[in-house]
Design brief:
With 60 residues, this protein is mostly beta strands. It has one helix spanning 27-30; strands at residues 36-41, 44-50, 56-59. It has a three-stranded antiparallel beta sheet with strand order 1-2-3. A hairpin with a 2-residue loop joins strand 1 (36-41) and strand 2. The protein is globular.
Amino acid sequence: MDGMNDDDRPDITPARDATEGMPTYDARALTGGGALAGIVLDGQLYMLRITKAGKLILTK
């Protein structure tokens, strides 16, 4: 599909201490330990970025 196999994907298992009923993910797991991750919603690509200050920015 996207050229990645299951061994290449980061573990994005929901965090154990998530609020009940709300999926919660570790941003560093989503970015594979880096600073960027792509997130697709309805065919549109968004970029999740972790800043040097440790904040999250989501852009289209």
